Amino acid sequence: RKAKDGGANLVVLPENSNRDRQYFVDGKPSKEKAHEMSEELDGSFVKGLCKACAELGIWLAVGVDLRGPSPTTAYIAQLLIRPDGEIEGVNKKHVLWDYEYTLFEPGDDPYQVFDTELGRLGLLICADGIVPEAARVLSLMGAQVLLNSLNSRGPDEMRVHIPLRALENGVWHVASNSVGNPNNAGLLWPWTGGSQICDPHGKRSVASEQHDDMVMGDVRPFEAELKKGSWTQDIFAQRRPELYSLLTKPIDAVPCAQMYGPAPEVLPFSGPASVKVAMLQLSWTHTRLCTEWMTKRQVSYAARRGAIIGVLPELWCFARGEVEKDPKAAADYSSSVLQLMLDAARENSMHLCFTLVEQETESSSRLFHTAYLVDPGGVAMKYRKAHLGVSERAWATAGPELSAVCPMAELGHIAMLVGDEVWIPEVSRCLALAGAEIVLHPADWLTAEAGEMAATERASENRFHLVSVTRLDCPGKLGSQTTLAGEYIGGEPIPL
Hints:
The protein is built from 10 helices and 24 strands.
């Protein structure tokens, strides 16, 4: 009623809005108790919500636990209720979190987008937004606004997951989370609040992280049709679905299936326990000769500090705008720089990762933005960037495939991605499914969000280590970062 009085057309409430969270019997989680405490669609709680919507003439998205067909079955669900009091749709949570697997069943209904007078609405429930696929599928199905009901204790929701799902899909994201914790015993960790309305460009209106609050704002669904990001003119046109076939494989039929579950005594992949990596944060300085001299000094210093691999920013040896001005000259110079880097790798017994402009052959005019990994023996890996950004489209040809994942005795399973490909969740997901342990990422941050949100999320949601090295003169004014995969603690059965 307060929202309606404030002029709202739509209200989003948290996940599990009906739930008294005591669903343990004799200290153990009980599916029977979860079923007993859940609701029926024609029960008093849901009917009460429908009646309120009809009285006020307002839309409502609300998290409600629903009973399943058997006494041990219950679902975490979300209802979309119309202003006439009828239920427009029901969404059952697909990705459960931790203890929820001991109480509830994951939903397996297809995703739906609801075409309403407010716009095209897609429904998400908490951990559904931690993985990139749910929001991506809904957005590709035409959703303009994601409605997310959460019951989360994770500050990463409000700071990374929620805004990033809006940014990487060019959609609105309206997220409602629980806040605080009334308990004085047991688990005292609070629900983190931070409910927010996020526009397709990441601008947010955020509620309190400490106490009950309500955030209101204007959502303009038509803006989600633009699909323009800081890194591309068209988020979806930049995608290359033909390269993502690994996403369609059964989860037990992909290379990383060997990595599922608790770590065994003998790990499935051979490789070192740790790898010392140097982030060689450079960009063109003064002259080519000076830049080459600084590069060799940096590599030598990293080797003396014990690094066995060094990563440089994308196109670090060129002044900003130089490649676009004369791509052919940039390719010619790249040939000599490649030889310089091969010599540096050999002289310092290091692996070096960087990008250059590559001419396909002497008789071909096609140019590629190519990432190299060189070692004392020569070129160990090469990846021609498959997703081109705005400036690259003027001179580069898109590569034909994603980076290979290469097993290397000294490094582990290595893959590469270049620059703004970090914004495309399918790229990192495919590398993870192919078994990548370390992903090398020559970068040039256009915005701070590219590093603080996109790169951080890719390492987190895929559990690989991501080494992102940016130019000193990057527009995003953010430094390089190595984002570690992190370890699962206590038992978090999160499906990849």
